[in-house]
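Two proteins follow. First one:
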Amino acid sequence: MTYEFHAACLLMPRMQVEEYTALCESIRQGYAPGHPILLCDGKILDGRHRYQACLDTGTEPIFVEWSGGDPFLFVDREHAASRHWISQEQEGAVRKKLFAKSNEWAEMQTRINEEGNRARSEAMVGNQNWAAEKTVDPQVEGQLSGSVRNHAIKHARSSATAMAKILGISRAAMERVHSLEQNAPDLLDKVAAGDIPAGLAIKEMRRELGKARMNVRIARLNAISASNHELNAGKKYRVIYADPPWRYEHARTENRAIENKYPTMTLDEIKALPICQISEDDSIIFLWATSPKLVEAMEVLTTWGFTYRTMAVWDKEIMGMGYYFRQQHEVLLVATRGDMPAPPPDARPVSVVIEKRGNHSTKPEIFRKYIEAMYPAFDRVELFCREPAKGWDVWGNQSAGE
């Protein structure tokens, strides 16, 4: 007669080959199978390796029917709690499954859910009272200081915190287990079995999630590109305003592409735009660039047939990233071709504009107003336009319906 293994028994990792070989050898040499093999509802709850070793060595196993309450808690407390684990994540992966199937955890989860529901209800009531009275009772101020969303976040973390405390591991390790469980359960199974280190599983999960996000971004960028118009070479302009989607050589390139709402372009792609065909012999261009792209921007101006004249600076008030300086500004380069006149003195604005950065790298409207005041009588075009404006021809996906 052969026996099946209980679900609780199967959650524990298998012995390493060396350990199992040693167990079989000790049985062959006449060593007793050790503790009896425990059965629960006719299935092996404890001793699956001893059982298999007995079969492999032709030894008669000893069975005892177990009746000790919750089988999952038994396996956890009898073996999992005292086992030498490869990592906290492996321990968390195995013991979480054991404990999560126990009646004790079901009762605890019910209490956590009830507390979370009560906290959310109190927050909602408190927020409604605050909206009606515009005051908060000092005795409940602590409860109302967070929004309903904050209570939901705390509740979402409470299970991981409770489980981490029960198992005696860090909450960070338990949250990594939860992340693998949600995003890559097959990798979590490998961590639990000891087949791969937890750190490698987390790295692989993030890589796969990154690929998935990249595919979403690529699909979005392709959709954006499909709605772009070709540049109309049949009309020429004296005033050109451009904010190219520069491609950056760092890990956040695609994030920046999403932020700019345009597919990023290589330097050669930007230089290849037929700007010469749409600009008058006497014309001016206002070109946005960042500090790291300044040299490339100058190269673009030369390729397009313009000569650099000066620049304005936009102080965004919010510090960003940077390898040498934390960047807080962008520059608007000014270049001309032919005999393009400078604006009259009373239309020459200050060279530094201080305005807080908005969303999606949208440039301050004041720069467009400055250009209009400088050259009110000339035809104007904005390239890579985000928000079409009266008096401007535009090119870009945001203006597809204009």
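Second one, unrelated to the first:
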Amino acid sequence: MKQPLVRFGGAILLATAMAACSGTNAVPVANGTDVAPQVQQFLRAPATKAVAGVLEITQADREMARSFVPGRPHIMVPTFTHHAKPASAVGYPLDMTCQTPQCPVMNASVAYNVYVTPDGKTCKDEKCWGDPEEFLKAISGSPLVGLVQQYTKGAPTAYTYGSSVAVKYKLAYTNTFYNNDLWTILSAAAHHFKAVGTNAEYHIFLPPGVDTCFDQTSECYSPDNLTSFAFCAYHTAVLFGKTPIVYSVEPWQDVQVTVSGKKVYGCQDAKVPPGTNRLNSGTASTLLHESMESWSDPLPNTGWFNSIYGEEIGDTCAYLFMTKEVVGGGSWFVQQIWSNTYHGCADTP
């Protein structure tokens, strides 16, 4: 919902500048047309190898991270700061519109899950966060994903799960991940998968018990500090040479906080059907939210966006309009997505 314009390491970049570089689809590095020296070096370097499914951070990862030019993040706010629209604000005022002539979208995307492990042993696979891999595999080609076609023109089967890897990254003096930490992890994953441009997205999963904040702001995922707890997740992109790298940050979603003396779930719906696995569904709902928004607005505020309310297609329906999705042999209780077709929240095209 909220669109922070954040200063990253002394540089501010508006997403419109990234859109001007990338057009509707970013220049894929695979064809070698991005001549920036750091991109050419990236192309020539062999893919890094994971040992027992875990990547170690290298100097090349740190150098790549330092070359990134940041874009504008788009956050998903916690339950206790999310507000329903007035009853009179229904229909067309809530619809999404393209914000730039280029209207960047992802008409196909491969998802890569990146699990942050502090020691190479804890949280080195999806189990810490439920079953996000199974969810991404299950929704590919489903009517739920088909909803995004009205924005991207991409076939539901064009949105797929690729693979996953763990990245070993231990914080030295704090429990908070900042931008450079996340960009170093992102660089490690990019060196491993060799996938950049607007046909790939990295989902960085942070383990329980850690926070993450934007540099030089008090806007954080911080269940241990309610005054700075401003988001549950976000998506954005960095510019690597002339090529965007799209990613989302997915902190641990099964978290409770105390608001006005009452214990509440900070990042998922308060009421769920009996038998619902809160960890699985909380992770899946936020992952759906960020994926759909990335596909329809990968360089935030340049694709499909509602400038009146500052919202993307996942925001309006978050926490308020939920649905049980039974797909691919599994079931998850997740939010619905805004549909311009129906002028409302939906889970079908």
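SUMMARY FIELD: Helices lie at 15-22, 37-44, 59-67, 132-139, 143-146, 149-152, 179-193, 278-296. The longest helix spans residues 278-296.
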